[in-house]
């Protein structure tokens, strides 16, 4: 009896080691042995199947563990990859790489200044459109809208987020670009202005739905209490509900900014891909380039040093988004703490 | 089910799967793979579709051997493969960019790298020594044309000198009234192609003499695709661009150029000064498999069917054709 038990746990340990080992190799080094992968994959599949039949408990536990940790692991692997491939671009002259004004592929001069500036302009423009509209519609839907209108507006806004970005890009390229050109009598397409509008519309559902959730989550008794003191509904919302929901609204804004900053397809289709600073520097009717559209439009043709520089741009973008989301976390937790004390 | 049965079953299954994967892998080896420029793609993919469908000699519409003085009773691909003593094989053509094709052929990921610009122009940083492994095969010619918005053409701006083209893309001429052939008071919108693309590289070489030219500040917009350049020209009333010759129409007509010799050329002329060869590169010489496929494209049959009739591109002259055929290994 005891012998049988030890053999059984011995088999279990070997099986587990085999499956997890193959999975780890498959997961991290799948590029290295391309023909070998199929066998590793089979070991994982059959090992898991055998494990499921004989040791369901521990297999289920392990599977759940792998599923939940793989997102974090993938993020880590992406970060490592980007850092390894992108860091060399910063090494030579990091200041010039970030603030220089020239990107000339044929002469191998790479600096991201104009693209960083382009991303700032476009994201700022998009936020200018999306933030007031998104927060207003969130307040309306959460607090003022009658039920029938709410049941129509909420899915409509969510559907707006579901439209593929290539469709936005197509509409922007075919309609908006030439319309703006005609309307403002500008001599060229692909300025910063048109993508800002489209990105504003694209970031709108993110801001609206997250902000709406935040406003909705404020306990009703707080607003009721204010109303009982004789303030109007708008005063109650302005003085009680919105401040209470402010951390959620801030998170919504930052998520929206992240969306606008990271959006690629629509911008790539619409923007002019001119890798130079506009002059004057605030001229939003000049053609330009953003970090994302630079990578998207040039990686296909790139070789050698250009790939390195584009990876550097990717790394920079990754870091900016990382800083944004960490900041939003910090703001959120601070506001939450204050809210709890107050 | 006990563990022994299960283990046995899985062993059998693994064996079957590995055998299938081996078979697929082996077949994968028999395929001739090409990838690269979207400009060269029409020629390569048309040739590949003829090759893969392998029409018999009785199908004189698709394999008119006798019309081109070829005496054989074999089907199309069988014949061209047999010239090198090979069995027929499949050809797969991918579509990306010149630079990608050139990189892939060097890395051994494909057998043929399609490129619409010479390797030395695509990789100005590489030395002649590094480039020497690229074996060039010119399969046809494209002509780089300049196209303008319809309104520009109608206003009479339909002949440009080389200096004017230079001036427009360098930003020195910013209004159509600065062009000698017309009096059209409208800002110029200069439309370029994505940097690094074969079209952009050859534009710089043809007009400015080098891909490393700087100060092309006149370019307002760059697009990654010919279709987008065409669309932009149609949607505006002030544009000039250099889309591929397939992307010129009545809505965005071509203009004539006055070149350095003082003569006026239209894009239909044989002597159009902005020609560019279309390449299919092999790596470190040319294997028999590659040569069989390339010989078909370079033959009278291939030039006529895949280049002249099949696309808007232009055939090699007889002397060039002979020179290109000479570069291939001798037939058996």
Write the layout of secondary structure elements.
The complex is a heterodimer of chains A (342) and B (332).
Chain A: H1 2-29, H2 37-54, H3 56-91, H4 94-99, H5 113-144, H6 147-162, H7 165-183, H8 193-217, H9 220-228, H10 233-262, H11 265-270, H12 291-298, H13 305-341
Helix pairs in contact in A: 1-2, 2-3, 3-13, 5-8, 5-10, 6-8, 7-8, 8-10, 9-10, 10-13, 12-13
Chain B: H1 3-29, E1 32-36, H2 41-53, H3 76-82, E2 91-93, H4 98-107, E3 112-115, H5 119-122, H6 128-131, E4 134-135, E5 138-143, E6 147-148, H7 150-154, E7 159-161, H8 162-170, E8 189-193, H9 198-208, E9 219-223, H10 226-235, E10 239-241, E11 256-258, E12 264-265, E13 275-283, H11 288-298, H12 300-309, H13 318-327
Parallel strand pairs in B: 1-2, 1-3, 7-11, 8-9, 8-10
Antiparallel strand pairs in B: 3-13, 4-13, 5-13, 6-10, 11-12
Helix pairs in contact in B: 3-11, 11-12
Helix content of chain A: over 70%
What integer is the average pLDDT of chain B?
A: 88
Relative helix content of chain B: 25-40%
Instruction: Count every helix of chain B, treating DSSP H or I runs of 4 or more residues as helices.
Output: 13
């Amino acid at each position: 009896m005891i012998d049988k038990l030890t053999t059984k746990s011995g088999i279990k340990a070997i099986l587990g080691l085999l499956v997890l080992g193959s999975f780890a190799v498959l997961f991290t080094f799948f590029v290295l042995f391309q023909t070998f992968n199929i066998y590793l994959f089979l070991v994982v599949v059959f090992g898991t199947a055998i494990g499921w039949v004989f040791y369901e408990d521990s297999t289920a536990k392990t599977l759940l563990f792998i599923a939940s940790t793989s997102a974090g692991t993938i993020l880590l692997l992406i970060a490592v990859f980007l850092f390894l491939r992108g860091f060399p671009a910063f090494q030579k002259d990091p200041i010039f790489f970030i603030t220089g004004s020239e990107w000339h592929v044929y002469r191998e001069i790479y600096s991201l200044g104009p693209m960083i500036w382009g991303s700032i302009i476009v994201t700022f423009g998009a936020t200018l459109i999306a933030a007031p509209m998104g927060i207003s519609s969130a307040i309306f839907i959460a607090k003022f809208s009658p039920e029938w209108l709410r049941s129509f507006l909420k899915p409509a806004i969510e559907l707006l987020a579901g439209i593929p970005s290539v469709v936005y890009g197509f509409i922007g390229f075919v309609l908006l670009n030439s319309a703006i050109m005609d309307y403002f009598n500008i001599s060229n397409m692909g300025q910063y202005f048109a993508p800002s509008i489209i990105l504003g519309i694209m970031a709108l559902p993110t801001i609206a739905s997250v902000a709406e959730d935040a406003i909705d989550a404020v306990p009703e008794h707080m607003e009721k209490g204010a109303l009982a003191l004789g303030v109007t509904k708008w005063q109650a919302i302005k003085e009680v509900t919105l401040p209470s929901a402010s951390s959620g609204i801030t998170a919504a804004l930052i998520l929206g900014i992240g969306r606008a900053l990271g959006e690629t397809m629509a911008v790539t289709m619409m923007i002019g891909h001119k890798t130079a600073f506009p002059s004057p520097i605030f001229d939003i009717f000049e053609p330009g380039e953003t970090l994302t559209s630079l990578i998207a439009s040039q990686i296909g043709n790139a070789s050698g040093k250009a790939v390195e520089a584009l990876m550097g741009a990717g790394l920079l973008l990754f870091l900016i988004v990382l800083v944004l989301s960490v900041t939003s976390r910090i703001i959120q937790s601070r506001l939450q703490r204050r809210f709890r004390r107050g | 089910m006990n563990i022994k049965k299960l283990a046995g079953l899985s062993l059998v299954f693994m064996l079957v799967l590995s055998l299938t994967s081996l078979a697929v892998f082996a077949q994968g080896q028999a395929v001739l793979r090409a990838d690269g420029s979207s400009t060269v793609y029409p020629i390569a993919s048309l040739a590949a579709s003829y090759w893969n469908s392998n029409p018999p000699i009785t199908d004189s519409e698709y394999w008119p051997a006798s019309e081109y003085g070829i005496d054989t009773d074999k089907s199309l691909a069988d014949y061209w493969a047999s010239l090198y003593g090979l069995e027929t094989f499949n050809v797969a053509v991918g579509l990306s960019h010149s630079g990608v094709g050139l990189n892939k052929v060097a890395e051994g990921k494909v057998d043929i790298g399609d490129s619409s610009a010479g390797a030395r122009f695509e990789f100005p940083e590489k030395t002649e020594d590094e480039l020497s492994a690229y074996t060039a095969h010119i399969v046809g010619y494209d002509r780089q044309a300049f196209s303008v918005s319809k309104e520009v053409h109608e206003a009479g701006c339909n002949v440009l000198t080389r200096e004017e083209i230079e001036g427009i893309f360098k930003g020195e001429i910013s209004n159509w009234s600065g062009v000698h052939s017309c009096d059209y008071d409208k800002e110029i919108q200069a439309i370029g192609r994505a940097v690094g693309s074969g079209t952009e590289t050859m534009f710089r070489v043809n007009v400015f003499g080098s891909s490393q030219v700087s100060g092309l500040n006149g370019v307002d917009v760059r697009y990654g695709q010919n279709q987008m350049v065409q669309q932009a020209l149609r949607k505006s009333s002030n544009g000039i661009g250099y889309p591929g010759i397939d992307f010129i129409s009545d809505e965005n007509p071509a203009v004539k150029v006055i070149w350095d010799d003082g003569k006026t050329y239209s894009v239909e002329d044989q002597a159009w000064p902005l020609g560019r060869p279309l390449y299919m590169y092999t790596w470190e010489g040319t294997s028999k498999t590659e040569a069989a496929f390339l010989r078909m494209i370079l033959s009278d049959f291939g030039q006529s069917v895949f280049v002249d009739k099949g696309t808007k591109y232009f055939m090699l002259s007889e002397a060039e054709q002979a020179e290109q055929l000479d570069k291939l290994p001798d037939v058996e």
